[in-house]
Protein 1
Amino acid sequence: MALYAIGDLHLSFASDKSMDVWGGNWVGHEQKVLDVFPSMIGQDDTLVLVGDHSWGRNLKECETDLQFIMDLPGRKILTRGNHDLFWDSRHTSKLNKLYKGKLEFLQGGYAVYGTTALVATKGYADEGNDPPERVFQLKDRELMRLQDGIRKAKTAGFDDIIVFLHYPPTDPGQERSLFTDCLEKERIHRVIYAHCHGEEHFHDSLMGNVRGIEYDLVSGDYRNWVPLRVL
Ligand SMILES: [Fe+2]
């Protein structure tokens, strides 16, 4: 039994947004996933997909992409990314009903992996795309979701918690954020995030051990389509 993580599959089987245009590790990345994942991940293993699964604008346009993910080996837990337009955060339970036994959609709560709680929310990093009042709102809402997920896991008796954020834990180039303050206060030791793809963004945020927390970036192109073994 092992726990793996990777993010930013950005599939586009039913839309015209192939990631091949980005070159490098993106060229034919779907085939790399098909070649690599089954050789590493067994049916008893768990794979956390850390957001930005599909370019589809609604569930209909995502069906083929979600089927591709369903066909990968092991238990699949999907967290929410900024491009997952098919996933309305108010209707996560609807998605879970629809894909019961096939995919798990995790946003703002926690999933159980052995004796470890996996807490996930999208997070937010200010990349200059939103006006200041919106940035404040988005950070505040995501911070609440993070706190809520950690509180629920702790209330259920979990000491061992891994946090998954889609966005990096800080704004680009920053050392601290409301999120890192919360994670440190809650004594979290492991944080996994994605979203930073393209070489110029790989070092946008924290990596390695920072103030007692181990941070790992798992965007697919950064990992060259090899999932990170977390546990
Ligand atoms: Fe993203």
Note: Residues 31 and 225 are 10 Å apart (CA to CA).
Protein 2
Amino acid sequence: MESKISTYEDLIHQKIIERGSQGISQQELAKSVGLSTRELSTIVKRLIEKKLIIKKSIKENGKSIVKLFAIQVFNEPKILIELRNISDIPCFSCKFLYKCNNGAHVNPNSCSKLSEWILSIIR
Ligand code: SF4
């Protein structure tokens, strides 16, 4: 039974991912992959432990139903910055610091000194 479970793990995870925000019930999933609910429960438990899926109770047609949802992993772009010398931040020595504000005439969005400093520390 162990090898059967391992074989089906990826397939079941993929089926849950494919259902997206709609989710899928365990009964429906068991039918679609041809496993018993007992076998499927073991696999679902493993996928939950691996933090690949979650079980959520939702309302459908006025009835509560438990469905499985894939946990989405977003690969956010990484920007590494180095803050070795915080005193280099131009705002700390800027004569406009107390006038500078979003929406004001002097603002961070259009400040070339701040932009240049940010660009200089991005790796
Ligand atoms: S964003 Fe520019 S203008 Fe505003 S305080 Fe910083 S350095 Fe000065």
Note: Residues 96 and 106 are 7 Å apart (CA to CA).
